[in-house]
Amino acid sequence: MSDIRGVENDTKSGELNMRALVDTEGLSVPEKAEFWLHGLAWAKHRGRHDTWTAARDRAAKEAGIASTIAKRIWQRFEGMNDVSGKALLKLMLAYEDACQRNEEAVAAYRAERLNLKAQRHAVDNQRARESVGESRARD
């Protein structure tokens, strides 16, 4: 009997485990950088009276890249051949972290919702069992 264990970062299976890489599969490097920067800026946008430039700069600051590099990626990604590895890695990790926080919030919300639903069904079942038999309202 052989011992087969799944490795999280198995390079032979060809599966991508990072959300940032799955979302940008098939894109060029500048397109990936723009996608991640745009996603981070969208998360940092504060609403109607905020500008996308300010959101982009907040996203760049959170990711740890210079706002000038973020501006260059934002405006000129279509004509770029490559993006520096340091900026690309920081954007990818910041995007991955944002996705992870979002997924954790969704899981917590879903667990809370299912817990409330279970409590509601327990109360409904208890009331249904109490009303079986003679009607107390007729007494």
Give a topology summary:
Blueprint lengths: L18 H5 L5 H16 L7 H12 L3 H10 L8 H46 L9
What does it look like?
With 139 residues, this protein is mostly helical. It has a domain at 19-102. It has five helices and no strands. It has helices at 19-23, 29-44, 52-63, 67-76, 85-130. Helix 2 (29-44) packs across helix 3, helix 2 (29-44) packs across helix 5 and helix 3 packs across helix 4 (67-76). It is elongated.
Helix content: 55-70%
**How many helices does DSSP assign?**
5
Give the tally of β-strands: 0
Mean pLDDT, nearest integer? Answer: 83
Gross morphology? elongated
Q: Structural class of the secondary structure composition?
A: mainly alpha
Sequence of secondary-structure elements: HHHHH
Any low-confidence stretches, pLDDT <50, length ≥5?
none
* Cα-based radius of gyration, to the nearest Å: 25 Å
Distance N to C terminus: 70 Å
Beta-strand content estimate:
under 5%
The description of the largest β-sheet is: none
Features:
mainly alpha, 0% strand
Could you give a short description of this structure?
The chain is 64% helix and 0% strand. With 139 residues, it is an all-alpha fold. The mean pLDDT is 83.
